[in-house]
């Protein structure tokens, strides 16, 4: 399967998160991708794995220029953004279908991000054959990446079905995301 064009992955994640019309995502002034990064960082706050990772070197997919903040768009590389997109697509299909509302949101996000035919074909391929949680998790190398991937998947859906809630639980387990981090994220999203 071909990858999404390099310039499209970050834009698609950003646009998909921005199309949420409820709660925190609707009021985010920083942008969708920055919201994912910020919520993930908050969710990991005080988690034992996050404290250990704070002293570890930055992963190669993260690019942080001098003065960067956790909310800067550049902290998520293209490979990680593609993994986020794969998790978002899989979450969207967790209940077995893309309903009319979800389809409209996807189409609006692609249009808002100015995604071309290559990016649209890539996303349609992901929707036709979504990744499983183990495939998503094997691409993750740090607890921070795990939190960002999970946060993107969680923001992609309103987990109102058993299948969606099960998908999120399975994804958190596959990513070794601490339960307290998941709970903190849910608290932030409910605010």
UniProtKB/TrEMBL annotation:
Biased composition (Low complexity): 51-68
One Pfam family hit: DUF533
Span list, region Disordered: 51-72
Gene3D superfamilies: TerB-like
SUPFAM superfamilies assigned: TerB-like
Key words, A-Z: Membrane, Transmembrane, Transmembrane helix
PROSITE patterns hit by this protein: TAT
Protein name in UniProt: DUF533 domain-containing protein
């Amino acid at each position: 399967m071909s990858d999404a064009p390099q310039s499209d992955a970050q834009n698609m994640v950003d646009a998909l998160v921005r199309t949420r019309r409820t709660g925190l995502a609707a009021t985010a002034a920083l942008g969708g991708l920055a919201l994912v990064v910020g919520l993930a960082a908050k969710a990991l706050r005080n988690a034992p794995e996050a404290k250990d990772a704070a002293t570890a070197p930055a992963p190669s997919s993260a690019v942080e220029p001098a003065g960067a903040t956790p909310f800067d768009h550049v902290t998520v590389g293209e490979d990680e953004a593609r993994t986020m997109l794969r998790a978002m697509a899989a979450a969207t299909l967790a209940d077995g279908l893309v309903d009319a509302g979800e389809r409209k949101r996807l189409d609006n996000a692609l249009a808002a991000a100015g995604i071309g035919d290559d990016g649209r074909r890539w996303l349609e391929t992901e929707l036709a054959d979504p990744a499983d949680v183990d495939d998503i998790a094997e691409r993750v190398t740090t607890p921070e990446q795990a939190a960002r991937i999970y946060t993107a998947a969680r923001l992609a859906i309103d987990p109102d079905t058993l299948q969606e809630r099960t998908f999120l639980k399975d994804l958190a387990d596959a990513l070794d995301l601490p339960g307290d981090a998941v709970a903190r994220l849910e608290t932030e999203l409910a605010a």
